[in-house]
């Protein structure tokens, strides 16, 4: 295999774009790379049963594709409005023969979020990997302009739903299971326009490290992935101010944004027994930005 330079492995930013609403991968003009045509599995997750939130697009899509190609059966949660994207994920891994259960549900509602977990357990015949990827990020320049509604939705999506779903899943996860949450470089290097979002990502990191110690004696490992700037619908549907999109990722040491596919191997590693002695860790995948 020839050596690959990570600086030029994926494209730097072409002209950026902006979408209204939540943002569909299907509507991205500048396509993101999720490994549909490139990810080759090596039986790392055969027999695993995984629930992945936010599995329709972006980072969650790359994880869902990788997990299916590694041999796992997968339950996918996502916003019902993003069904089109979720269907593309199922199509991408149809040839694996793995079970792909679709659970479109808004998880800002407690009962609905808990039901996603019990539905996944029922339809997969059990659960041993829970991957929390779903997230909400809306840039607002001025603290005076952050509405209580946005603050509430951001915390409900990123923090409360994580808590509800983990609490429900712990009732079912056997020893050997993994819980993987998704933080961000924003947890330590917050942007001035992401006050609410960045603080949820710090909460996710700390919540996970506390819980990791509590669940380790039961044989359940909790770990975190903290991405840097990654090209997904989240960023072009209000996640960044419009004028910031053109230089998105350029301030990383690699000088470019990341692609969802570059996140997937960390989630595979943390779900597989290869990471058996990794507990309460945060894997920072951010193109080289220093972290604590
Ligand atoms: P994305 O928009 O492709 O994925 C987020 C998904 O979350 C959406 O597809 C949506 O279906 C789901 N979601 C949002 N609100 C929901 C709700 N109420 N109920 C159910 N599902 C809901 O964007 P992404 O960038 O791949 O984001 C995935 C995760 O990665 C998020 O937690 C985000 O904070 C984190 N992250 C992203 C970046 C980045 O630069 N893209 C950087 C650091 C962390
Ligand atoms: Mg989506």
TrEMBL record:
Q: Does the keyword Oxidoreductase apply?
A: yes
InterPro entries noted in UniProt: NAD(P)-bd_dom_sf, Sc_DH/Rdtase_CS, SDR_fam
Q: Which UniProt keywords apply?
A: Oxidoreductase
Biased composition (Polar residues) is annotated at 1-11
Annotated segments matching region Disordered: 1-21
Family to which this protein belongs = Belongs to the short-chain dehydrogenases/reductases (SDR) family.
Q: Do you know which PANTHER family this protein is assigned to?
A: NADPH-DEPENDENT ALDEHYDE REDUCTASE 1, CHLOROPLASTIC, NADPH-DEPENDENT ALDEHYDE REDUCTASE-LIKE PROTEIN, CHLOROPLASTIC-RELATED
- The protein's name: SDR family oxidoreductase
Native species of this protein? Microlunatus spumicola
């Amino acid at each position: 295999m020839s050596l690959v330079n990570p600086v030029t492995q994926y494209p730097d930013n072409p002209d950026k774009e902006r979408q209204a609403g939540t943002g569909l991968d299907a509507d991205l003009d500048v396509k993101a790379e999720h490994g549909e045509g490139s990810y080759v599995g090596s039986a790392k997750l055969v027999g695993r049963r995984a629930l992945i939130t936010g599995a329709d697009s972006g980072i969650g899509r790359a994880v869902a594709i990788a997990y299916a190609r590694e041999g796992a059966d997968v339950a996918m949660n996502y916003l019902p409005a993003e069904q089109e994207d979720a269907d593309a994920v199922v199509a991408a891994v149809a040839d694996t023969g793995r079970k792909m259960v679709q659970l479109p549900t808004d998880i800002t509602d407690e009962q609905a979020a808990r039901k996603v977990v019990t539905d996944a357990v029922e339809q997969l015949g059990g659960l041993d990997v829970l991957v929390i990827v779903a997230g909400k990020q809306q840039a607002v320049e001025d603290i005076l302009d952050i509405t209580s509604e946005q603050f509430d939705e951001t915390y409900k999506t990123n923090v409360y739903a994580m808590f509800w779903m983990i609490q429900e899943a712990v009732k079912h996860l056997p020893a050997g299971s993994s819980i993987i949450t998704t933080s961000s470089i924003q947890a330590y290097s917050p942007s001035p326009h992401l006050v609410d979002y960045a603080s949820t990502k710090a909460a996710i990191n700390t919540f996970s490290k506390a819980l990791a110690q509590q669940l380790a004696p039961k044989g359940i490992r909790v770990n975190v992935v903290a991405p840097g700037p990654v090209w997904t619908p989240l960023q072009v549907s209000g996640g960044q101010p419009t004028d910031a999109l053109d230089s998105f990722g350029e301030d990383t040491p690699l000088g470019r944004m990341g692609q969802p596919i570059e996140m997937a191997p960390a989630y595979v590693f943390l779900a597989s027994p290869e990471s058996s002695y990794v507990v309460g860790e945060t894997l920072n995948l951010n193109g080289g930005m220093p972290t604590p």
